[in-house]
């Protein structure tokens, strides 16, 4: 403990127990008690004794002392390296530093076994040592706070061992690693979410611009088919009057065919499976049902009753008689603010809706005049005679009215005839010109077929279809036919 109490740190950073620094030769008195009188020195010695007693009472265990010596050596080495830089004595790895040399020397004062550059007894420099490069010692380099004679006893924290320090470092590194993993995980999740958003944003079908200021919502049904939500009562089959042809195609796909209107100049009709769409200048202007799947915004369709119509739309309508039907019309506004008509054509016999139409009336529309040079009557006649021959069982005559391409689709004559073995009658109920050219005419028709069914009963089937006839020389022949069944009943 005696040597411990005399330990002092020189301004050069060396820790000493003698009266002179072995590294630079600075006297202990200049560092520990600079400028003190003898009385002050005595008081300082008394204070040191008190501190020694206090240190004895708080004496750490041997393992703590060993740890303290370890840290003292580390601190001394760091301070010596700093001082070497300040005094232009740069110590590099591998250099021979005199203070760490184990060679001893004897001073002229009689002190033997010195290991530093200065004598620990008198402070005299080792013979041959160049002291000119050393900076002079200044008294204000070290400032020590005097210790009170009766200092309050404070609890002393135990000195950490090197193992404790290493464990603390490992815990800090573990904490840092955990935080780094959390940050990395959060970043990965964020990037995944961002990628998910961009992926679905790229896959999402863009909304096609409409000529209307109001754009309908776009969504898909359970089969992945595009379904357009109708916005106004001037709508049918998923389309509103006023939308563009692009949005029409997006909702319904590719049309079966298209044709110019016979009644309104500039109007083009697009026919789909259950709906006809009239377009003027890239804007939907008319809609006509062609099957029960084409419904209004309020759910009314072909086959709905008069009472269904009244329950859905009320009695604020205008009506007129037209052949075997009564036409009921309601007035509504379209997407672009135009007045339009919603018509329900109801059969007088059964009070069922035969068809539904939605349109914006075209004022002062110029009627398309038929071309008198086209033999439209001859085109109609060949189709009527075709079904008359089937009804009379003249299958060879009916087969001859088909073009070779159409015959190839039907098969040979025997195969063709076997398809009509149960047919009792096939009659055209209505026939309307769709388009006409000198050598080609397209017509829409309604056909009623009566077939023998299970004994003496009769199956009645109704078809809607389209037929194209072409002129070969002076003879009209049926080239294409397409139809769909819209009704069926059994008669006894």
Features:
alpha+beta; 492 residues
Explain this structure.
It contains eleven helices and 18 strands. The protein is an alpha+beta fold. The strands form five sheets. The chain has an eight-stranded antiparallel beta sheet, covered by helices on one side. A four-stranded antiparallel beta sheet has the order 15-16-17-18, with helices on one face. The radius of gyration is 55 Å and the shape is rod-shaped.
Q: What is the number of helical segments per DSSP (H or I, 4+ residues)?
A: 11
Distance between the termini: 131 Å
SS elements, strand count = 18
Gross morphology is rod-shaped
Biggest sheet details: 8 strands, antiparallel
What is the structural class? Answer: alpha+beta
Give a brief rundown of this model.
This protein has 11 helices and 18 strands.
Topology:
Layout: H1 2-5, E1 8-9, E2 15-16, H2 28-32, H3 38-57, H4 62-86, H5 162-203, E3 218-220, E4 226-228, E5 235-236, E6 239-240, H6 245-252, E7 257-260, E8 267-271, E9 275-280, E10 283-289, H7 306-313, E11 318-322, E12 325-333, E13 339-347, E14 353-359, H8 376-391, H9 395-400, H10 404-410, H11 413-418, E15 423-437, E16 440-453, E17 457-472, E18 475-491
Antiparallel strand pairs: 1-2, 3-4, 5-6, 7-8, 8-9, 9-10, 10-14, 11-12, 12-13, 13-14, 15-16, 16-17, 17-18
